[in-house]
Design brief:
Length: 167
């Protein structure tokens, strides 16, 4: 896990994912970690384990499809592993910080806990936008728009898939 030290600064808006070392094993570990942390979070928010499992599975697939599509349209598929790892590491950092905050929200339901949770969502949006800016070579506003589109595709996409499956 020595490679993690190269990817962590991206969560604090430092570095470029295209300059980071490529490791398929690191990508797989991050994907598995992201999946199980997401599953843990969903199990604690949703009563139905099957729904939690499907939500996390669809969210993971939509994340990978979004990265794949974005890089394909930009003719940058050579960096899929680095960009995917960068996004997953950042999401994993946010998820690990969110765990105690979600416990706090569940126990206390205080306004401050919800504010911290909202700040984490904003942080995730901003670091994803930072990664898209670095990878695509676009301005901040355009990268923020792509970050919002990412949120819509992955998180609202899961909701849409669940609605379609319920029909």
């Amino acid at each position: 896990m020595d490679i993690l030290k190269y990817y962590l600064p991206l969560s604090w808006f430092k570095g470029n994912p295209l300059d980071l070392p490529k490791s398929i094993v690191f990508f797989k570990y991050n994907l598995i970690f992201n999946y199980f942390v997401g599953l843990f979070l969903q199990f604690n928010m949703i009563d139905d384990p099957l729904e939690a499992f499907s939500d996390v599975t669809f969210e993971t697939l939509l994340t990978l499809i979004f990265i794949f599509t974005l890089l394909s349209l930009n003719a940058s598929m050579a960096w899929f592993i680095q960009v995917g790892s960068a996004i997953l590491v950042g999401k994993n950092v946010v998820a690990c910080i969110a765990l105690p905050i979600l416990a706090w929200v569940t126990v206390s339901e205080s306004l401050i806990s919800y504010i911290f949770l909202a700040l984490l969502v904003c942080w995730e949006l901003l670091f994803l936008s930072y990664i898209f800016k670095q990878v695509l070579g676009i301005n901040r506003f355009a990268s923020l728009i792509i970050g919002v589109v990412y949120f819509i595709v992955t998180y609202l996409g899961v909701f849409g898939i669940n609605v379609l499956l319920a029909l």
